[in-house]
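This part of the workshop introduces the protein records we will be handling. A record pairs a protein's sequence with a compact description of its fold. As an example, a complete record with its sequence and its structure tokens follows.

_____
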Amino acid sequence: MTTIELPLLRSKCAVTLHPPSADAECPIMQEPIASAVLQPFPRPYLADKPTHTAMTLQCNHTFHAMALVYHWARNRNVLCPVCRTGPKQRLVIGRLPKEWRYSMAARVRRQRMQDRAEEEQNNHQVAVQLQGTVSRLELSILIEAEAGVSPPAWNLRTQFVPLADSMIFVVPVEDLRQIPYTHDTVIRLVPYTDLCRLQPSSWFRAGSSSPGSNFTVNGDARGFHHMHLFVSEELFAMLIADAFVPPARFHMIVLSD
């Protein structure tokens, strides 16, 4: 039995490396630790201790050592997969045993890219399925003008458009033409749903500059030409949740003096 310290971002995490008992099963692999082999990393955690394939945490939960380390590296935390206790930090892959740390880093990088691609594909499939009920998926954009400008704010509705590799909300052309601000007005854009106000763009001069990477706005002295909002996976998930929350659950209470 050997106590080792795993390298974390700002500290270290003490764990016990030891030979597994005959009946110990890894909660991650769901196989007996004594016979389990993590195919991408068949080597033991320490080359000089080939029989020490079990890793026990301070919470007393035991795992296949390489399966646990890979799980931590992929999920960017060192919490126990069973009870979720542990330091809220990341594992530093570059300080792991040199026999396999480079292959671990490459594998984790590929897996994260694959996970992200699958998540985006799943979101796109949901978006396509929602095309028939697009009226339920609503996002508004509030234009706030600089102090002294009238009107001080202007609301816009958007149309949901799922694309092959992204999801965007587009302000219809007829609504763009109704915006009462000239191309030299300083404004900012604030997307919001019925439930919450989202991160606004930076302030910019209408028709002369872009408000940020998630917004695309174009205009000149003749007015606004287009306005798109590219949504993230988190925002899209929020909008899906908002669209299917029963309105009866929400009430507005107005208090008077």
In short: The chain has two domains: 2-99, 135-246.
